[in-house]
Amino acid sequence: MRVPRDGDPDDTRRSLPPVALLRDLQVSMAAAASARNDAVAGAGRRRLRVFFLPFFARGHLIPQTDLACRVAAARPAEVEATMVVTPANAAFIAPTVARAAAAGHAVRVLRYPFPDVGLGEGMECLGTAPAHDAWRVYRARDLAQPLHESLLREHRPDAIVADVPFWWATEVAAELGVPRLTFHPVGVFPQLVMNNLFGIRSDIISAAREAVSVPGLPGKEITIPVSELPEFLVQDNFFSEAWDQMKASQLAGFGVVVNTFVGLEHPYCEEFGRVDARRAYFVGPLAQPSCSAAVHRGGESSVDCLSWLSTKPSQSVVYVCFGSWAHFSATQARELALGLEASDQPFLWVVRSDDSSERTQWTPPEGWEQRVANRGLVVRGWAPQLAVLAHPSVGAFMTHCGWNSVLEAASAGVPVLTWPLVFEQFINERLVTEVAAFGARVWDGGKRSEKDEEAETVPAEAIARAVAGFMEDGEQRETMKARARELAERARVAVSEDGSSWLDVHRLIDDLVQATASGLPLPQENSVRV
């Protein structure tokens, strides 16, 4: 599957050399901070006002909202978190914000209009836009720049946490004399892999090789077929054009917040803090499967899948979900349906709800629903993934390897069957299967690629064989189950009091308070807390 190009219409971007950007922003931030401190001198102590700007995708909206709530909950008397979002996205996160407010935490919402890019009403993120119109969401990103700049200048927050694509937040923060942090919704392993491969991008393009070994990574060697690399590493698109600019903005900013935990990516966390951030805060997992709000996090399900799960034996159900953005062809969806049927395993399959794209109009094979009625459930639209993964009847998760899904599976202690589709998901798969070792691939029998025209269809027989084999009792399954349980315990400890992620949330707040009070950049700190 291709990453939608923002270049379908003409697109113009400003560029600054990384070194010049860093120098200019540091000077600008110091001068503006001095003026800002003079303006607030003598005022009584108030909450630290932190603005959060997420990109237009549910995989970004949800964890950044979780982060805002986590920060506000950590110091209720000291921090006020504001989600800066468009109207439809505000409605999407409203239940989470309402629960935070009910708990007495200062979490607000500030709305701004979604840019007019020709999408239908209420289509304001990749999860709701038709597949063929996804490029319009990326176009909206560029058009949001003046809206963000105006809004930030008007409200003058004490700190800004902005998503990776919103590189201009660093410049505005410097102008205002406040810290800007980059929020990364994906882990440090995929970031390091993409960074290091981008450095040899010209060689990858010119060498016409079948696979590439990732240079500069700590630990074991990682090799990836070129067909499985994100498109921006092998040809020009929106990401390749914007990569240097986004990276320069990140390095010039105050620091980076990552939704991961040290117990999952320890050697990579150390390397990331050394080379890719002035300050690194590893604060995940932001989503907790044990939380009672997990049932409603992200939306409402069309069916009561949790009650259905309760009718199944312990660890018997394969949960199948490929995220809110990616799409299967009708042929591949049919093969998946037949493969799940032939596996003889109970399954819960989440299918993206229909929209105007023909690609998403999926009809089950004739008689299929009747044949699997006693052991299969299809949910169209949204399912409470955290609650599903935490259910004792779930024994495996077939996933596209989106970062949120990887992190949620690890946090819940559920072994994973990997089926990556787009962007960094093939890289995430290596972390799951080769490094953390709590999952296995669905298929190794043919070419895989994010480009539809290159990827081979995974046959039903292979799917059935993979599912049945993965669920079969034996040494391999027991090893993966034990590894998944170990990761779940590490995740629990990380977010508990004095755990690595708990400490990083409080360190983040302390650093922002100190930076706001002094108006001066703090000493560089790249240590990783274990």
UniProtKB/TrEMBL annotation:
Top-tier EC class: transferase
PANTHER family hit by this protein: GLYCOSYLTRANSFERASE
Entry keyword Transferase: yes
Source domain of life: Eukaryota
Signal peptide start and end residues: none
KW Glycosyltransferase (keyword) present: yes
CDD domains linked: GT1_Gtf-like
Enzyme Commission number: 2.4.1.-
Family, as annotated: Belongs to the UDP-glycosyltransferase family.
Protein name: Glycosyltransferase
